[in-house]
Amino acid sequence: MVRQFRIYETVSTTENEEQNPLECTVRELLGKSVVDAEAKDFGKVEDVRIDLRSGFVVAIVVRTGSRIFVEIRHMIIPAEICRIGDRVLLSVTKESVLTRKIH
User: 11-50 burial, b for 16+ CB within 10 Å, e for fewer?
Assistant: First the structure.
């Protein structure tokens, strides 16, 4: 089964309103810490790539830190995300993602 996450626009929120656990807003996702399958810090969510036709997330972009004048970013696809809560938990290790950089 391919895991998909849908981004939605929140019009109004009440305290009693329940949210689907597989849905979140972009605002909630941006800046969240990302942890890999070995519970190692991976980085922070910097951006979200969305398929505009379906509204589904294609990937989240994670900034893993920076070196002098170079920021390093990695794309994480929904199938590699185990859970989203206070942090984004991955089902893969950091090492398995290191080969996928975007600029």
Answer: eeeeeeeeeeeeebeeeebeebebbbeeeeebbbbbebee
Domain count, the chain: 1
pLDDT in tens, 12-66: 444 544 555 567 788 999 999 999 999 999 999 999 999 999 888 899 999 987 6
Nearest partner of 63 among 53, 55, 54, 74, judged by Cα: 74
Query: Which of 27, 69, 66 is CA-nearest to residue 45?
Result: 27
Give pLDDT, residue 53. 92
Q: How far apart are CA 41 and CA 75, in angstroms?
A: 15
**Domain of residue 56, CATH code:** 2.30.30.240
